[in-house]
Amino acid sequence: MTIREIAALAGVSPAAVSLVINNKKGVSDETRKRILSVMEESGYSPSVRKKSVRPLRIVVLKYRVHGIAFEENQGFIASIVDRIESECRHYGYDLMMYNCEPETATATIRDMMNAAPDGVILIATELPKEDFPLLDLIDVPLVALDQNLYHPGTDCVVMDNANLAASLVEYLAECGHRDIGYFKFSRAVRNCDERYEGYLAALERLGLEKPEPILLKPTVDGAFEDLARMIRSGEYVPHGAVVCDNDTIAIGAIKAIREAGYSIPEDISIIGFDDIPFSATTMPALTTMRISRSAMGEMAVSILRRRMRHPDYPCMKLLLGGKLIIRNSTKALTKVPEEQP
Question: Which residues touch 236 (CB under 8 Å, ≥6 apart)?
């Protein structure tokens, strides 16, 4: 019998079983009795691992498939990890980093669990659905960051992608735009797929046409090359307004459009997502949706702390909002109503 099997029989989390085995607080008397009863009936005799109580050890596990989230989005993930590190220092936790790739994921996670940490924060941006079963190998409190995982019992901290993207469409519509296109990654990334779904839903509500998305490589250079080729061939003519999956491809697209002789925002309005540092220095500066990386890191640690103290607390899926940053890449065709103080 394993801790996970005992947990399944008792109808609790593996973390709750671990607390009972180690005679720690954090579960109710009723839950403790139920777990002890299942252990006795199953003949389970734990070999209790001696583990120091302080300082607690936290692992940040980075799951990398293609590197779009880590290398191409100009420090977006690194800023989140910096805040996690700061929060762990504040609480006196030891922090370790593990890098994980599909080919070695099982071995990496098992190695990590040989000296099991007290909690894990998974950077799940690039984690594909078919690899969700890997999470079953982690039998300590776990928080997934930057993807809303459809995995039972896993806490998540993620951007409210669909609603935020919808708000970008609504802003462009308020500016008088009725022809609103979409520059989309040429490969699937769940966060960006959710943004596209929000974009489509907003067009539906507004009664606007749903043009086919323009597929671009998810890098600055790749987006530039793809869009420049489409403009040269006549496959795409810059017009109206466009929402982009993120700032990275928006920046590449701006370069291609300007080099083709078009003006932004006179010929086309462009809006991005994430507010990476480069977005403020493009020509023109990019209108975008700002996401607080610091809040994402802070909330990931906060939820993990609660999960470590209270294993039976209800599972949480936290959606973080954003702030529209209006710069010079968008133009109002009609006057936009002023915000009320």
Answer: 214, 227, 230
- Cα gap 93→57, rounded to integer Å: 6
Cβ 128 vs Cβ 65: under 8 Å: yes
Nearest to 168 by CA among 204, 199, 127: 199
Q: pTM score, two decimals?
A: 0.80
Residues 11-43 have pLDDT tens digits of: 888 888 888 888 888 889 899 898 888 888 888
DSSP helix/strand/coil, 273: coil
SS3 94: strand
Distances (CA, A) of 336 to 237, 315, 330, 331, 339: 26, 41, 12, 10, 9
240: nearest Cα among 208, 275, 218: 208
The pLDDT value given to residue 288: 98
Contact call for residues 268 and 260 (beta carbons, < 8 A): no
- Given a cut of 70, the residues of the chain with pLDDT beneath it are 46-54, 69-72, 74, 334-341
The number of beta carbons lying within 10 Å of the beta carbon of residue 140 is 23
Contact 276, 76 (CB under 8 A): yes
Residue found by looking up tokens 């504040």 in the block: 90
Residues 6+ apart with CB under 8 A from 153: 13, 315
